[in-house]
Amino acid sequence: IKQGAKEIQGIILRAAKTLAQAREKAIAQAVAPILRKQGDETLQRVAAAVRHMTRAAPPDYADPLQRPAFSYCPKLDAKPFFERHQFPFLRALKDVKKPILEELKSVLAETNDLEPYVEIPDDREAQWHELNHSSKWSSYHLYKNGTRVAEHCARCPRTTEAIEALPLVRLQGQAPEVFFSILEPGTHIPPHFGLANYKLAVHLPLIIPDGCAIRVGDQTRQWVPGKCLIFDDSFEHEAWNRSDQLRAVLIFEIWHPDLSKAERHYLASALAAYSNFNAKLDRIINESLRTAQPPTSASVTA
Asked: What is the model's pTM?
């Protein structure tokens, strides 16, 4: 039995290695035109980010509190919070904060349209047990995992127009991610990490009672209504609402300012190839499972 288990393990390991090599080849083909145009030297840090994404190489984090769940890009300015003056395009939101707030209030009037932000299998990640499938932390997405939610965008036209005019991160299957985030009174979001450090989270505070704050890395800040808060969510972060009223912010993502246009293009192309490869593999596996014949009683007996 042990010998058979070792043989099966060997088959699985060889198959995993073959798949990893095929995926790396697909990514290499996708970024090859960018490499030819820009040269290897100008794209070294984003190439390292892709190697972390595919688990081809371990990352070398700049800060012990920084542990992105998906991909780490080295040699980017690593700090918990960024200041608003670094992103002049965010000033455009100042003129539409009132219409955005009105659209949020319209959404809140129909709470059935909100959905729990945390929805994962119950046996995973015990830290999310209290918030999993719970209205304590709910959301209303305009974009989710890079896909536009047309019905929600139509219901919030001024918000959608304002956000779509910004230089959002656009990554297949991952971004944009744009949503109203609603935190009920007495709710605490536990410490956790975002997906990657090549993008920053932006909060536009809308309804902020006293007793609400967010910690990112070793810094804690309070939201100020109408003033964007920009942070790197690859740092450990948590948030809380210790008031007796709900807290609401609009959340979206922008690129880390250190990244060049070519580097952003490289990351977008690599992630598209990565996502397409995994989706194709899933289709093959699902089709194989669907068409597989169950063993007959005769074959089981034999």
From this structure: 0.89
Q: What is the CA radius of gyration of the chain?
A: 22
DSSP 95-156: GGHHHHHHHHHHHHT-GGG-EES----TTS-GGGTTTTT-TTEEEEEEEETTEE-HHHHHHS
**Contact indicator for 82, 233 with CB cutoff of 8 Å:** no
Burial zone of 113 (CB within 10 Å; 0-12 exposed, 13-18 middle, 19+ buried): middle
Mind listing the pLDDT tens digit for each residue in 150-179? 999 999 999 999 999 999 999 998 999 999
- CA–chain centroid gap for 83, Å, is 21
| Residue recorded with tokens 């997906």 | 195
Taking residues 123-137, report their average pLDDT. 88
Distance CA 276, CA 26 (A): 9
CB 195 within 8 A of CB 174: yes
Residues 103, 108: Cα–Cα separation, whole Å: 9
| 115's tokens | 């959905």
Nearest Cα residue to 287 out of 275, 279, 297: 279
Q: Which helix (H) or strand (E) holds 254?
A: strand 247-255
**Strands 187-192 vs 237-241: parallel, antiparallel or unpaired:** antiparallel
Percentage of the residues of the chain whose pLDDT score is greater than 70: 94
